[in-house]
Design a protein that fits this description.
- The chain is of the alpha+beta class.
- Helices cover about 25% and strands about 25% of the residues.
- Strands 23-32-31-30-26-29 form a six-stranded mixed beta sheet.
- A hairpin with a 4-residue loop joins strand 16 and strand 17.
- The longest helix is centred in the middle third of the chain and has 19 residues.
- The chain is globular and about 90 Å long.
- The N terminus is likely disordered.
- It holds the Pfam family E3_binding.
- This is Acetyltransferase component of pyruvate dehydrogenase complex.
- It is an enzyme of class 2 (transferase).
- One of its GO terms (molecular function) is dihydrolipoyllysine-residue acetyltransferase activity.
Length: about 625
């Protein structure tokens, strides 16, 4: 039951604000969060997203969270949604539906109290509410924690209840000494903050600065440890999957400890990045407590226990990859003791490398009993050495991907796999556009680029053919027409391709478009775009006319349904009939336009009408000034 097609930068269209909340930020227990495993079971996993004012020791505690299996019947687990960029937890204010109730599209399931307001959680699919995992009044429920289970068939409701109750009983009997030890070791390995001795403080977690963000990089800290913080001060700059954004302080105080230093990569949303206090006198106490906690964690190295615990467990490894076999032979490892993470229990090279790294092993020396090599062996060894030297001489450099490039790669692959691309191409005359640009510069001292005028031409064509200004709704399975013409402009930056949005482009003059595009492009290159300046958009333009590219096909940027690829202008000779009716050769500048469209939205008729409108606007360019 997907929560979003996130066209709004903060919350989905299915959530309505009831009333603003005056509740102050509260403490969150450092607890376990339950995630759905590969076999469908809810499993406890460590969660260190601590935020809120803490004035007493933090203890692990869950309320009414049970285990269940999904192997026998189809169902869906609803997790606590992130309803705002700063939300890491929420309270279940009230359940509007009871267990067993039928759910229709648009029904309100429950009311959730966030750090900003009380919002309604609306159903986007129909079914039945089989089990409520988190009841009314539950406080500080972390984002992502399961809160309910739904099923499609009413007959499966009893199966869910039986499975939840049955497996919860099994879990109550399951803990053993070994399980406790394993859980403690996991907690020790993931916990780096001991809050038991800390004065009143607040732990700041990595915020969710965009709907698609699940991790970020600390680009720069603008405040140092010990600095006073005012409301609105910029604490640090965070590189997200879209841009580098500033993290503002919402309260005053002092920055006592930076947990995630400058340059830290892939910090999960909710993971602690800093600690603040209200009084300057508490800064040293926080620093000392944190330092001793870190030292204690380092000193708690695994100690050899009884023989029964030291005994290595055997793993069922069905297959071993060739690269893994070579490493096992080289280091003299036992394959049965290694954990296989590949498909069908395949032992991969990365599994062996992880074991080697954790045990700090070195290659096993060659056996001294080996016989002296023959002349053929000498030749083979020499040949092998030469090949090794050739491999070592091949110089290469690993180029790390930024968060932006990782997301671009993922989204473009999804677009090509999941969106049926329709390509339409046409050549248009560029001479009228170039003539208009020259007149604007010479007569009115208005300096605009070719791309600025193209944006205006496309915006006018979208207004003429509103069916082209649309997108495909996965939830509804139908085409949704957009009310405004918001054009995304592709801008190349050092960190990757950004697409800032020119909103209501059809209502703006060419000069206004030019100045706004320059401002947005500068922000994109500096990584200073705000979420509302790059999220959304109804149509994209990618212009490579400044390069020797005659034409190309661009990839659609979901959830949009269309992108226009603009090539360079080329002079061509074509026949023209003059006033005397005689055909004569003439030189004209032509531009290739290639439309990549979602075939679910664009059929031949809509695509042809849009290209016809584009061609008409290019031929009579001056009417755009009206």
């Amino acid at each position: 039951m997907a929560l979003s097609r996130l066209r709004h930068p903060l919350i989905s269209h299915s959530l309505r604000i009831l009333s603003s909340s005056t509740r102050s930020i509260s403490r969150t227990p450092n607890s376990r969060i339950y995630s759905v495993g590969g076999n469908g079971n809810l499993r406890p996993t460590s969660w260190s997203g601590i935020t809120g004012v803490c004035d007493r020791p933090l203890k692990s505690k869950w309320i009414d969270v049970k285990f269940f299996s999904s192997s026998d019947f189809p169902h869906e687990v609803l997790g606590m949604p992130a309803l705002s960029p700063t939300m890491t937890q929420g309270n279940i204010a009230k359940w509007r539906k009871k267990e067993g109730d039928k759910i229709a599209v648009g029904d309100i399931l429950c009311e959730i109290e966030t750090d900003k307001a009380t919002l309604e959680f609306e159903s986007l699919e129909e079914g039945f509410l089989a089990k409520i995992l988190v009841p009314d009044g539950s406080k500080d429920v972390p984002v992502g924690q399961p809160i309910a289970i739904t099923v499609e068939e009413e007959s499966n409701i009893q199966n869910v209840s039986a499975s939840v109750e049955g497996e919860s009983k099994v879990e109550e009997k399951r803990p053993t000494n070994q399980d406790v030890a394993d859980e403690q070791s996991k907690t020790e390995s993931t916990s780096t903050i001991d809050t038991s001795d800390l004065p009143p403080h607040e732990i700041l977690g990595m915020p969710a600065l965009s709907p698609t963000m699940n991790q970020g990089n600390i680009a720069k800290w603008n405040k140092k440890e010990g600095d006073k913080i005012e409301v609105g001060d910029i604490l640090c700059e965070i590189e997200t999957d879209k841009a580098t954004l500033e993290y503002e302080s919402l309260e005053e105080g002092y920055l006592a400890k930076i947990v995630a230093p400058e340059g830290t990569k892939e910090v999960a949303v909710g993971q602690p990045i800093a600690i603040t206090v209200e009084d300057a006198g508490d800064i040293e106490a926080v620093k000392n407590s944190f330092s001793s906690s870190s030292i204690n964690q380092k000193e708690k190295a695994p100690q050899p226990g009884p023989k029964s615990e030291v005994k290595t467990s055997k793993n069922n490894t069905a297959r071993i990859s060739p690269a893994a076999k070579l490493l096992i032979t080289e280091y003299g490892l036992d394959a049965s003791t290694l954990k296989a993470t590949g498909p069908h229990s395949t032992l991969l090279k990365s599994d062996v490398l992880s074991a080697i790294k954790s045990a700090k092993l070195s290659p096993k020396p060659a056996s001294s009993k080996a016989k002296a090599p023959s002349s053929q062996s000498h030749q083979a060894a020499a040949s092998q050495d030469s090949k090794t030297d050739l491999k070592q001489s091949d110089a290469y450099e690993d180029f790390p991907n930024s968060q932006i490039r990782k997301v671009i790669a993922k989204r473009l692959l999804e677009s090509k796999l999941n969106t049926p691309h329709l390509y339409l191409s046409s050549d248009v005359k560029l001479d009228p556009l170039l003539s208009l640009r020259k007149d604007l510069i010479e007569q009115y001292d208005v300096k605009v680029s070719v791309n600025d005028i193209i944006i205006k031409v496309v915006a006018a064509a979208l207004k003429n053919v509103p069916e082209a200004n649309a997108y495909w709704s996965e939830e509804k399975g139908e085409v949704i027409l957009c009310d405004s013409v918001d054009i995304s402009i592709a801008v190349a930056t050092e960190k990757g391709l950004m697409t800032p949005i020119l909103k209501n482009a059809d209502h703006k003059t060419i000069s206004a478009i030019s100045s706004e595009v320059k401002e947005l492009a500068a922000k994109a290159r500096a990584g200073k775009l705000k979420p509302q300046e790059f999220q959304g958009g109804t149509f994209s333009i990618s212009n490579l006319g400044m390069y020797p590219v005659d034409k190309f096909c661009a990839i659609i940027n979901p959830p949009q349904a269309c992108i226009l690829a603009v090539g360079r202008g080329n002079k061509v000779v074509e026949p023209v009939i003059d006033a005397d009716g005689i055909e004569k050769p003439s030189v004209a500048t032509k531009l290739n336009l290639t439309l990549s469209a979602d075939h679910r939205v664009f059929d031949g008729k809509v695509g042809g009408a849009f290209l016809s409108a584009l061609k008409s606007n290019f031929s009579d360019i001056k009417r755009l000034l009206l």
